[in-house]
Write a structure and sequence with these properties.
By secondary structure, the protein is mainly β. Helices cover 0% and strands 44% of the residues. It has strands spanning 3-5, 8-9, 30-32, 39-44, 50-55, 60-64, 70-74, 81-86, 92-97, 102-106, 112-116, 123-128, 134-139, 144-148, 154-158, 166-171, 177-182, 186-191, 213-219, 230-233, 241-244, 251-255, 261-265, 272-277, 284-288, 293-296, 304-305. The strands form 8 sheets. It has a 4-stranded antiparallel beta sheet, with no helix packed on it. A hairpin with a 4-residue loop joins strand 9 (92-97) and strand 10. Residues 195-205 and 301-306 have low confidence and may be disordered.
Length: 306
């Protein structure tokens, strides 16, 4: 269970060529250790001072990203911890586990402050809303749930037609939408404010609870076996995109509004499970089962960032 941190020159791995044979090898600047089993998720604090990790050893760890030291170990889950995210204030950490629960931890002391009996199958994705007042969770049970951070109340339950297993969830930067990847090779953008969407699926559940509407659906990638990450790429307002990994070894970049595939990156030799996009630079990272991590940027950029 090791985490590696690299310093990335954004002029490498350019999106115009997307040629993995011409990529430049990088040397990790630090190695974070401590977990006794594999690591399923890594998340940065909003200030980039800290890293949190979720592991098959049933724990989470908080690291100083600069010194590489473990600050806190979070325990309490009864099975593999699959996902984690910081709230915007960096004082809370939410996690999802194969024990079917969502837990909320106090970052300062490591104590579990709330446990949500969230799902009936493993929890595969969690995220905070941009203001930190809500948590979204997704699960193999096919449900996406939105929770009140302060009270733990379930505010909304969302599911797609056919109830496909959910592999990943994240809030849009405006807090109005939730992007969910499902194991039917689709990404759906859900309007969780309750407004009517263009492709509206379920609006209420059996209890009459307002659940949200499917505003857009993105397809073309392959996802029916693994939990595949997705991300919003909003650094360039003229190229706002949804980025997704795929089991065919490629990274797919969808136009946010038209839903068309803007670009396909021949990224890896095996399934791409992890992708992320920089908040202010046009920089995409991808990780595959082929045990490589690759970084991609348009040729016009010549900045440096880590």
């Amino acid at each position: 269970g090791t985490v590696k941190i690299w310093t990335v020159d954004t002029s490498i791995g350019r999106l115009d060529t997307a040629d993995i044979k011409s990529s430049t090898p990088l040397t990790a600047r630090s190695h974070l250790q401590g977990h006794t089993r594999g690591i399923n998720d890594v998340c940065w604090s909003p200030t980039a001072e800290y890293l949190a990790t979720a592991s098959d050893d049933k724990s989470l760890r908080l690291y100083d990203a600069t010194k590489g030291e473990t600050f806190v170990e979070f325990k309490g889950h009864q099975n593999f911890v699959f996902c984690c995210k910081f709230n915007p204030q960096s004082n809370l950490l939410v996690s999802g586990s194969y024990d079917e629960t969502v837990k909320l931890f106090d970052v300062r002391c490591g104590e579990c402050v709330m446990t949500l009996p969230a799902h009936s199958d493993p929890v595969t994705g969690v995220d905070f809303s941009p203001d930190g007042t809500c948590i979204v969770s997704g699960s193999y049970d096919g449900l996406i749930r939105v929770w009140d951070t302060a009270t733990g109340e379930c505010l909304k339950t969302i599911y797609a037609e056919g109830n496909p297993a959910v592999g990943n969830v994240l809030f849009a930067p405006n807090g109005r939408y939730v992007l969910a990847g499902t194991l039917d090779s689709k990404l759906r953008l859900w309007d969780v404010t309750g407004r009517v969407g263009a492709e509206g699926e379920n609006a209420t559940n059996e209890s009459g609870q307002r659940t949200g509407r499917c505003s857009k659906t993105y397809s073309g990638h392959t996802n029916n076996r693994f939990c595949v990450f997705s991300a919003f790429s909003f650094a360039n307002r003229d190229r706002q995109s949804v980025v997704s990994g795929s089991e065919d070894g490629k990274v797919y970049i969808f136009d946010l509004q038209s839903r068309e595939i803007r670009q396909t990156l021949n990224a890896h030799t095996q399934a791409v499970l992890a992708v992320d996009a920089h908040r202010s630079l046009e920089l995409i990272g991808s990780g595959g089962i082929d045990k490589t991590v690759r970084f991609w940027a348009p040729p016009a950029q010549h900045h440096h960032d880590s």
